[in-house]
Write a structure and sequence with these properties.
alpha/beta, Rossmann fold, 6 helices
Length: 214
């Protein structure tokens, strides 16, 4: 049984080693059992877009200490965050370092996932609202540095942030990243960059948990 993930053929970009996302459509994607095993073994970076939010927009001037000025997770989004965290534990993926943007929706996602001690980094704030945008922006460079930093054996790193950031850092092929969807990255040896391994939607986790014997 194959999970409808995207297997990402390698290509070299100007400043990083990356890969082009292609829809698996039931073929070409990594078998669920192999992906579950890779998550258990660690050494991967998981980039997650926060789950579903309320039907409103952020205030013109966001106060990161006041969630009332922000678009926050909806009840459905909160449930999905908890479910994804439970699924990670069920496949025995051990989160080491976790880092989120300053937005309440990102910080709450990590908390509901059961990830303790998550760091907050303003470089992960919504790239669409940054004064300087694009692949050469400081926040894109900061995210690329995170993606090419390999966690220790048996651990995965978790980044919870926003869609524009991954587009700026790794290319427009990530522009369709869905809410609560995770891109699994593997660092390229010798600090050469990073390569996406798979994409995991919220709906894919039951198959992964079953493959892991959970």
């Amino acid at each position: 049984m194959r999970v409808p993930f995207a297997l990402l053929p390698a290509f070299l970009a100007a400043t990083l080693a990356g890969a082009l996302l292609t829809p698996a459509q039931g073929q070409g994607g990594p078998p669920a059992v192999e992906l579950a095993e890779a998550l258990r073994k660690g050494g991967l970076v998981l980039y997650m877009r926060h789950p579903a939010t309320e039907a409103r927009t952020d205030a013109e001037e966001v106060d990161f200490t006041d969630c009332a000025t922000q678009r926050n997770l909806s009840d459905a989004g909160r449930q999905v965050a908890a479910e994804v965290g439970a699924a990670l534990r069920a496949v025995r993926a051990r989160v080491g370092r976790a880092v989120t943007s300053e937005y309440c929706r990102a910080r709450e996602t990590a908390r509901l996932m059961g990830v303790a001690g998550a760091e907050v980094d303003g470089a992960l704030n919504d790239g669409g609202r940054m004064l300087v945008k694009g692949p050469s922006s400081p926040q894109a460079e900061a995210l690329r540095a995170m993606l090419r930093t390999r966690p220790g054996p048996g651990e995965v790193a978790l980044i919870v942030a926003h869609r524009p950031n991954i587009v700026d850092a790794a290319g427009a092929d990530f522009a369709d990243l869905g809410e609560a969807e995770i891109v699994v990255f593997r660092a390229v040896p010798d600090g050469a960059g990073f390569a996406p391994l798979a994409r995991i939607r919220a709906a894919d986790w039951p198959a992964l948990v079953a493959a892991a014997g959970g």
